[in-house]
Amino acid sequence: MSTAHTVVTVLAALWVGFSAVSVFIHAKWVVEPLAEYGVARRWWPWLGTAKAAGALGLLAGLVVPVIGVAATIGLAVYFTGALVTVARARSYGHLPFPLLYLAPVVGAFVLGLAA
To answer: Which stretches are transmembrane (predicted)?
Structure first.
């Protein structure tokens, strides 16, 4: 395992974890767009839980790589779904935001393959 892989994985997990906490505390900058996209409020805790599980899975993957792979796949599906949701809502100016979370997750995965 390389230092770069470890650092990027930890930063990606912290970044995704921050996003999960933002959903749980109903941060205005997160929940207002969710409502604008038409995401039902009853789904918000599940979305936060999925992000939190993914963040923990990335960290666990540093010890048990298969868990990291599963977390990466889950988070990639999650943030791809977020891209589709944003596009479907025609909030094209918000499309970069899911990519800001997806990119470090994919980066950590690629660095893990190279290590």
So the answer is: 51-84, 96-114
